[in-house]
Write a structure and sequence with these properties.
The protein is α/β, with parallel strands linked by helices. The protein has eight helices and ten strands. A five-stranded parallel sheet has the order 5-6-4-8-10, sandwiched between helices.
């Protein structure tokens, strides 16, 4: 196994299938034949192998929780700032597209569609909290009503998804951060955290996004108040 030029080539030679390459955290998402797991794991280029674990949406009444009135008082509106919502997608709701369409980009890692949509609703809920302008009802305005939304769909119609798709979404967001002036990455989902940091790909990717200049916001506390209920990332 020592003769492979790259780990991707080794995986292919051993009957595996590459799903994504994630240079952000020097990782590869792949399907591996069970019979070759030990051989691949022993390769000198492999630090560890992680399951492609499930992630699940998290939801709460966020505007009240984060004291959005204080944001209103500052008169900061988020104008021109890109907020990447990595979630179930984003529906072109009037509060996001009128009088100006502020959904400026959309990437679909689940169904590969090009127009914004949301077959669950959670991502639209999150985008509205962040940047809804109250066009339909001024009492339901978001925190940064002039910010732009970059919707990245990595969760399916049930509100769940795979770690590999989340990692690919983060990679896409980092790669396109300057094109869309993305300053914030929101991830209102979580996966049970049973690993130390350097073995947790979600935590590593979130950290790498921070190192690339993004403010990363993640869900925390939805499963509380018991101990060890904070999910990754």
């Amino acid at each position: 196994s020592g003769g492979c030029e790259s780990i991707s080539k080794c995986i292919l030679e051993m009957g595996g299938e590459i799903k994504y390459e994630i240079p952000l955290i020097n990782a590869v998402a792949a399907k591996l034949p069970a019979k070759n797991i030990n051989q691949i794991a022993s390769h000198h280029m492999i630090q560890y192998i992680n399951d492609d674990s499930k992630v699940f949406k998290c939801i709460h009444i966020a505007s009240v929780c984060v004291s959005h009135l204080k944001a209103d008082e500052t008169e900061y509106t988020g104008k021109g700032i890109g907020i990447a919502v990595l979630d179930t997608g984003v529906h072109p709701h009037d509060d996001l597209i009128k009088p100006t369409n502020r959904i400026i980009a959309f990437k679909d890692l689940i169904n590969d569609r090009t127009s914004p949509y949301d077959d669950d609703g959670h991502g639209t809920h999150v985008a509205g909290i962040a940047a809804g302008n109250g066009y339909v009802n001024k009492n339901y305005r978001g925190i940064a009503p002039e910010a732009n939304i970059i919707g990245v769909k990595a969760l399916d119609y049930t509100g769940s998804g795979n770690t590999s798709d989340i990692l690919a979404g983060i990679q896409w967001i980092v790669d396109n951060r300057e094109k869309y002036n993305i300053k914030i990455l929101n991830m209102s989902f979580g996966s049970p955290s049973d690993k130390i940091y350097y073995e947790d790909p979600l935590a590593k990717a979130a950290g790498a996004a921070v190192n690339n200049g993004l403010t990363v916001v993640t869900a925390a506390g939805n499963n509380g108040p018991s101990q060890r209920t904070i999910t990754s990332p």
